[in-house]
Amino acid sequence: QVQLVESGGGLVQAGGSLRLSCAASRSIFSVGTMGWYRQAPGKQRDLVATIINGVTTNYADLVKGRFTISRDNAENTMYLQMDSLQPEDTAVYFCNWRYKNWDYWGQGTQVTVSS
Fold first, then answer.
1. What integer pLDDT is reported at residue 82 of this predicted model?
2. 47: burial class by Cβ within 10 Å (0-12, 13-18, 19+)?
3. Cα angle, residue 103 at apex, residues 78 and 65 outer, rounded to 5°
4. Does residue 74 register a pLDDT over 90?
5. Mean pLDDT of all residues in the chain?
6. 54: left (phi over 0), alpha (psi -120 to 50) or beta
7. Centroid of chain to Cα 91
8. Nearest one of 114, 109, 67 to 86, comparing CA atoms
9. How far apart are CA 35 and CA 47, in angstroms?
10. Nearest-angstrom CA–CA distance, 106 and 22
11. 15-41 per-position pLDDT tens digit
């Protein structure tokens, strides 16, 4: 069993920055795919960014150049640095890890960007 706990969300003005953290209960981030997703009210959960096998990063077009995904294996923690935030980035952000038959989600952290 793996537990993922997000933190770092909050209220920020447009143009500001936040860094989200996702702490894992076990050392898992060197394998599989870890990622950040977000879900705005009334909308589906969308991919934000992923790291595959701890190396290859991918970003949704809407966040390219503004968001950066990273990991710290020693701390069993994944991060999402979010810069130049805009009101349309407002959502609940979830971290996810999947590998073979395992697929785990965190509980989510709210990010609200005011105009």
1. 98
2. middle
3. 40
4. no
5. 95
6. left
7. 11
8. 114
9. 8
10. 8
11. 999 999 999 998 888 889 999 999 999
Tell me which residue has tokens 């965190």: 106
Name the β-bridge partners of 93: 38, 109
Closest CA to 6 of 101, 87, 113, 97: 97
> What's residue 55's pLDDT?
86
Residue 89: per-residue pLDDT: 98
DSSP secondary structure, 40-102, as one string: -TTS-EEEEEEEETTTEEEE-TTTTTTEEEEEEGGGTEEEEEE-S--GGG-EEEEEEEEETTE
Tokens of 72: 């710290």
Whether 48 has a pLDDT exceeding 90, the answer reads yes
Whether the Cβ atoms of residue 69 and residue 51 lie closer than 8 Å to each other: yes
